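U., I forgot to send this yesterday:
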Amino acid sequence: MDAYDKDGGRAELAANPRGTAPHPSPPGAPAASRSAGAPPGRSPGADGDPGADAGLGADADADAVPAPRSGGIAGLSMPYQVVASVALAVVSVLACYHLAMVFLHVAPSNTLTKQHGKAVDEWVFPEFEQNWKLFAPNPLQQNIAVHARAEITTADGGRRTTGWIDLTADDGEAIRGNLLPSHVNQNELRRGWDFFVNSHTTDNRPNGLRGRLSERYIRRIAMLRLDAHDLGGRVERIQLRSSTRGIQAPVWSEERTDTRTYYRTLPWWTVTAADLPAGVERGADGGRTEAHQ
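Result:
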């Protein structure tokens, strides 16, 4: 059974189809007899011989597989581990400090807020301001815009009144498409108008000192916004108004919403030096001239 069969297969494989180990050769037998029938240049176990060198192949495969590397920070070199650890520690400390400050800001008055209230406000305002406008009990359901118009003196000495300028729309354009919008554009005008409305009666009379302060505040904001527009003359007086329109209820809701626009128009205010950016105003010739009383 040491000869090849007529199909060129090995007699040993034909006689031992299950691939069991062949009988050991007698001591002193030549090496060729141990692999009788192997073609020249071919090693035993080639072409997937199931019974040849199975144990040796498994050991070789095990040695060839690289050891798995550790993940996370442990997988970095030592300098990078130090940098990553320091960065993680700094971020963790800042996150804990920020959460503590916001908690103290929204928490009821207590010993810490009484002693460190100024530090808390300096951290929270204006970037991390907290309010309940978005949530219950009374979320905003209206679109409110602030408009302004001005009475100006032209170069020929005449006077004319500009059209209404939507200051809220100007702020919206500055925010739209900006990944990091300024809180001045987001909140200054809106909060200034809320301050005015909440400190005045329905007939626009101020409620004490806060009411008078809110007038000065909103007038200065309006002049800052108008200063960005080329009005064609020197501003003598300004007038503000708000437009309020209810937001349409969703289609699945049975709620009826009044979506008409309502205006609240304030009286004319004479512009003074205190209302102007840096105490100056735009002259009729397009330059900057000292403010007048």
